[in-house]
Amino acid sequence: MWYYEKKLQYPVKVSSCNPRLAKYLIEQYGGADGELAAALRYLNQRYTIPDKVIGLLTDIGTEEFAHLEMIATMVYKLTKDATPEMMKEAGLAPHYANHDKALFYHNAAGVPWTATYIQAKGDPIADLYEDIAAEEKARATYQWIINLSDDPDLNDGLKYLREREVVHSQRFREAVEILKEERDKQIYF
Amino acid sequence: MYTQTKYYYPYHSPFDPCKPIKVKSYETPPNLYMGFQPPSLPQFQPREALYHGTLWPALFSPYPGKREVVDNE
Amino acid sequence: MNKTMPPEFYQLLEEIQAVDFVLVELTLYLDTHPDDYEAIQQFNHYAKQSKTLKKQYEKSYGPLKQYGASYSTYPWSWDDTPWPWQV
Predict the structure, then answer these.
(1) What Cα–Cα distance (Å) separates residue C52 from each residue in A186, B24, B55, C42, C55?
(2) ipTM strictly over 0.90?
(3) In chain A, what are the domain boundaries?
(4) In this complex, do C21 and B49 lie within 8 Å of one another by their Cβ atoms?
(5) What is the pTM of this model?
(6) Rounded to an integer, what distance in angstroms lies between the CA atom of residue A53 and that of residue A171?
(7) Which candidate in B5, B21, B26, B36 is best for mutational testing of the A interface (most A CBs within 10 A)?
(8) pLDDT truncated to tens, each residue of chain A (189 aa)?
(9) Where does Ca(2+) bind (chain A) (predicted)?
(10) What three-state secondary structure class fits C35?
(11) Per-domain boundaries in chain B
């Protein structure tokens, strides 16, 4: 089971009310390489991966939910007191017409999240390579959003999330090495 | 010298309509080079670690934003 | 009725976030390095520090966890604002 903890993983700040940035950022909420897809991908693959790497998939999958909450916080703060007029100017009129300010699992172009974004091949190497690719794609997405954003506080949080992708990718690469079983020949201490 | 950003010079046709970006870049973060992380690497202090997004300086990947050179003839 | 959280709230929260972040990093590291004794000692050290800080936090600002992982105040204060995204 899971325990919710009433705090964010990182102190998220946003400098200004800016629904346009929220529109871009929603890519990491309900997009193909977003945090929801990441969490569900790893927590689903873990049932059929060798025992040695179940812990890693569980822990990274769990951390992804903390990142999902950070993205939600950013979107919430960027749009909280925006007027319908501001939503319209930001290109969010179609979203507003359907959802008001509610968050929804879709990407920056409004395409709803789909399970086809994630894979579970059942082959441990194929699944871990998918996970490594997913982390690199998420890292790239953060880069493109940072390039679009002029909000220094938001970018601080986005750079943190980008760095987490780098660390996760590192761990998944190590998981591949563990499954290859060759590295036991090296002694570390 | 080791750098986390790599550059390349894309082919530019005289018939390309946008102002050419002469130099393009892409990121090569440290996880691509580390292999299996060795034990006892130097660490950040907790608060520093939080604001870097990693406990280990060796895994830190700064991203200052796209650095591309547009041709201004 | 609006309340504003004092600066000490943000300081303590940040301290907890920093210590818990080290624990996240060490957790993922130990998942692939289960025999690193030094890292496990460090993990246990920060786990203890995290517990102490959270005890202090919960005394002033209410429970961090639910389902009995935190003790309750009287009256029940789990629903009290601010929620993490409102902070």
Answers:
(1) 38, 50, 21, 16, 5
(2) yes
(3) 19-184
(4) yes
(5) 0.95
(6) 10
(7) B36
(8) 999 999 999 999 999 999 999 999 999 999 999 999 999 999 999 999 999 999 999 999 999 999 999 999 999 999 999 999 999 999 999 999 999 999 999 999 999 999 999 999 999 999 999 999 999 999 999 999 999 999 999 999 999 999 999 999 999 999 999 999 866 555 554
(9) 59
(10) coil
(11) 5-33+42-70
Identity of residue B21? I
Chain A interface mutation, best of C20, C24, C25, C51, highest count of A Cβ atoms under 10 Å: C24
Contacts of residue A70, defined as CB under 8 A and 6 or more positions apart, other chains included, come to A8, A9, A10, A12, A157, A161
CATH level 2 (architecture), domain A19-184? Up-down Bundle (1.20)
C33 CA to chain A: closest CA distance, Å?
9
DSSP state letter for A52: G
Q: Dig out the tokens for C9 from the structure.
A: 């709230």
